[in-house]
Here is the input.
Amino acid sequence: MSGLKLFRRDVTHAGMTEVTPRLAEVEADVQGLVEAHMETLLGVRFLASEYSTGPVHGGRIDSLGLDENGSPCIVEYKRGTDAGVINQGLFYLAWLMDHRAEFERLVRDRLGVTAASQVLWSGPRLICVAGDFTRYDLHAVREHRRSIDLVRYRLFGSDLLGLETVASVSGGMAMGRRARGQSVAQAAVDVPGAAMVELAGAVDEVLLGLGDGVNRVERKQYRAYQRLRNFACLCPPQRSKLLVYLKVDPKDVDLVPGFTRDVSGLGHHGTGDLEVQLRTPRDVERAQDLFRASYAAA
Here is the structure.
């Protein structure tokens, strides 16, 4: 948010007043604000605050949560810039991977048996929320084989919070884009309807190409595309179509029967209230504005 300026129009509409960005007074203010609204701000369901890692490990995790794909999340906060925030988070992440049963008990107690049975241990995440990050931080996250999100915050006035994703790296980033596209196509080979092979690869390429730091999370029922939060979920190909769910308000879309559908309130795999049905490469082209809108909203 280093270059963002925010202005408030006065009641007479005759002038504008700049709202000066500021850091929190203390780190606990940032933590309390995020924990109270974690699902809205980060797409993560809150589980615990200041979670003790026991007398041997001797640590205390700022926040524990579970993201919308079932990935365990550690959230660490710093009021300003702190060179140790990433290493501290990775230290706790290593502890978490060694205490899976304990985490699953916590999920069961807070969110229920179903959520606990669906924890995705292949993609644990570290989210660092801080006033700023150094260029060394940005380099470090790309060197670690973990899913790490760096999020810069600013407070504006007394009632506005700004969050900016500075970096978002998946633990699976070592796989090249072309290889990932091929894996999507390969997954469709055994599905009746060979045309879906190319179509799935084309959708994968478009979604991964929407911006820097787009990560893909593999679940049995869908593939999620995210940058901090999910913006698209691609379901396994059906015989003659692909279903993609987007974080777009269906009320803002002119729904077209057979192409777009409002699924808010309806059960489906993945996240998002707008269903897009893709049958041909032309449909992928038609959907690109919706893909971009979902990416921007998430």
Observations:
- The CA atoms of residues 167 and 262 lie 32 Å apart.
- The two ends are 17 Å apart (CA to CA).
- DSSP finds ten helices and 15 strands in the chain.
- Residues 281-297 form the longest helix (17 residues).
